[in-house]
Amino acid sequence: MGGVGAKWGVVSAGQYVPAAVLLLLALLTGQGVHGGSCREATLCCNGRDSSCVVQKAPLNAIIEDLNDKPCYCDHACLKLGDCCDDFKSHCGVIDCIVSEWGQWSECDTACGNGMMSRTRIIEQKPQNGGKHCPSLVQKRGCQGLKCHNHHDRKALRETALLLPAALSKSRHENDTSDIRRNLRLRYKNAFKHNRGNEYCVEFEVIKATKACHKDATYRGLAEGERVIVRCDLEALHEDKSVDTLASNSIHDEDDPETPKYRCRGDGLTGRNTRFTTLALPACRGKWMRLTVGQPKKCPTSDAQFIFI
Q: Is there a smaller number of Cβ atoms within 10 Å at the N or the C end of the chain?
C-alpha cells in the first residue's frame, strides 16, 4: 500500500484523486487568485492604477468565461465598469442618495401659460468617488385658469390663423366689385361694416418651427422678431364673451351697447398664445402680444400678416 500512497492522495474517506491533480490545484491557488475580492486582496487604490488588479485566473490562461476576467480596485473602475464586486464596500465608496419627489407646486401663472415644479433633497452625499447626485428640481408647463373672466380664458386657448398682409390689399382693391360693398353701403353706419374699425396688433415671436424659416413669405416669424398683424373687416367676429369695456375687443365708443368685435387669436397682453399659417400649416409657433389695451388702427402697409 506504500506504493499506492505515493501516487494517490486522500481527499476524504474512501475517495482518492491523483497526486498530480492536487499539485496542479496547489499551483493554481498559489497565483494570488482571490475570487475577485478587493478585501481578500487587500487592495484599494486612488485614481487610475492598472496594477491595482485582482486576477481571477492565471496570467497566461485562456479566458473562456467572462467571469474570469480580471477586476480592479482603483477608483477609475467606477467609470470603466470593471470594479470587483466588493470594491465600493471595501474602499468606502458611497453613492449619492436622494429622497422621493415632492408634490408639484401651483402654476406660477394665474392666467395663461406658466411653469410648475417639484423638488427632492439629498439624503446622503457622495463620498470617495461615488455617483454624483441627480437633478433635484423638475419643471413642466402648466396653464393658469384663474383668469379674470371667460373672455381671457377663451383668448388664451385660441390659435391665430394667418395669411400674408399682401392679401389684405387685394381685398380692398375688390371693394368696388365685391358683393359685400352693397352691405357696407346699406349698413354704412353699422359697426361691423365700417372699415374704420379694422385694427393691428403687435406680437413678439417666442418660438417658431423650421418650416417658417425656410419659406420667404413667413421668414419674419422668427424667434425674437416683432410682427404686426392686421385684423381686417372680413375677419371680425362678434365677441359674446366680453362683459366689460376694458377688453381687447373693439366697440363703438358712441354706443357702448353695440356688440364687441375682434379677430380670433389676437391674444392677451403679455401672454403667450399660438399661431399657425393657413397656406403653410407646418409653420406654427408661439408669440406674446405686446399691444396694450384696445388695439390701434393702422394702415395696411404697417402689417406683415392678417388674421383669418
A: N
DSSP state of 296: B
- Return the number of other C-beta atoms located less than 10 Å from residue 134's C-beta: 9
Q: Are 239 and 251 in contact (CB under 8 A)?
A: no
165 forms bridges with which residues in the sheet? none
CA distance 261 to 238: 4
Environment class of 222 (CB within 10 Å of its CB; exposed 0-12, middle 13-18, buried 19+): middle
Q: Is the whole-model pTM more than 0.70? A: no
CA 86, CA 94: separation in Å to the nearest integer?
A: 12
CA distance 225 to 203: 8
Q: For strands 305-307 and 226-231, give the pairing.
A: parallel
State which H helix or E strand residue 124 sits in: strand 122-124
CB 144 within 8 A of CB 112: yes
Separation of alpha carbons 44 and 13, rounded Å = 42
Low-confidence stretches of the chain (pLDDT beneath 50): 1-14, 17, 19-34, 179-180, 183-191, 243-247, 251-252, 254-258
- The CA distance from 153 to 20, in Å, is 90
- The DSSP bridge partners found for residue 286 are 207, 274
- Given a contact cutoff of 8 angstroms between Cβ atoms, the answer to whether 170 and 178 are in contact is no
Q: CB neighbours of 4 closer than 8 A, spacing ≥ 6?
A: none
Fill in the amino acid letter for 218.
Answer: Y
The Cα–Cα gap between 26 and 81 comes to 31
Report yes or no: 264 and 287 within 8 Å, Cβ to Cβ: no
Residue 144, strand partner residues: 112
